[in-house]
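Lab intake sheet, docking and co-folding queue.

SAMPLE TYPE: protein with bound small molecule
LIGAND NAME: adenosine-5'-triphosphate
LIGAND FORMAT: SMILES
REQUESTED OUTPUT: full 3D complex as structure tokens
PRIORITY: normal
SUBMITTED BY: R.K., bench team

The fields below were copied directly from the construct record.
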Amino acid sequence: MANALLDVQDVVIRFGGIVALDHVAFTVPEGTVCGLIGPNGAGKTTLFNCLSRLYIPNEGDIRFKEQSILSTPAHAMADLGIGRTFQNLALFPSMSVVKNIMVGGHHTKRSDFLSNALRLPTVTREEHDLEEQAWELVDYLGLHEVAHLPVAALSFGLQKRVELGRALASHPKLLLLDEPAGGLNHDDIDGLGKQIQQIRDDRGVTVLLVEHHMSLVMAISDKVVAIDFGRKIAEGTPAEVQRDPEVIRAYLGTEDAQ
Ligand SMILES: Nc1ncnc2c1ncn2[C@@H]1O[C@H](COP(=O)(O)OP(=O)(O)OP(=O)(O)O)[C@@H](O)[C@H]1O
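RESULT FIELD (auto-filled):
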């Protein structure tokens, strides 16, 4: 088994009287796709928000590359090597596809306000590098034909691909995908699944995927973690988790299992 890139250790989150995460612990081995599943209200988004430092756990620790991330501010997560996409897209609708992808790489550049204002040569070079990298991602994600269009003119499926490109522009070691299949049709979902596996294999990116679309999770995950009412109820290969009695019970009678 590969080393754990992410190690979630006994995380507890309480909102008033609600225990949204109750001693959740699991690891994500480097170079794998890990699926995080659970019925509505299970705590998946809350866990994602802990991983991107929007929430602070009441108890427990989250370790990335063997270091705790709990004192790292949310805006510094990209510098650490953790990228994410959002359930509701967070793009700039009137900006072109390529410019949106460039935004994702900005944190990797060092120019300050003054050098930007003066357009010093270092700034021009950095912009050039960002643009070159954005074009590489445009090609990689099959967005060439729409690269100059404003994002608002694209189908939802293509907009989701742009968001993936923007997250990849920050060179993440770990990519957090929050319901990437939400709102996509069947063909788009097949394409997305292949793309996520390629991102793992070609770019060495480890992926943690929160997703309701069960067939996608089971098809592309190396490992699946299931939570229900804030507790981990199963962890293992897709086949192991699919036949786990607690998982079957949690999904029975819900509309989540697809
Ligand atoms: N900011 C908050 N304040 C109070 N309660 C919250 C907050 N965020 C989440 N909760 C509660 O925590 C629990 C877990 O919610 P969470 O959104 O993490 O579930 P989820 O698994 O992501 O659900 P879904 O699949 O519907 O997105 C729920 O009971 C929810 O109502």
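REVIEWER NOTE: Strands lie at 4-15, 18-29, 33-37, 59-64, 67-68, 82-84, 174-178, 206-210, 223-228, 231-236.
SIGN-OFF: pending second check by T.M.
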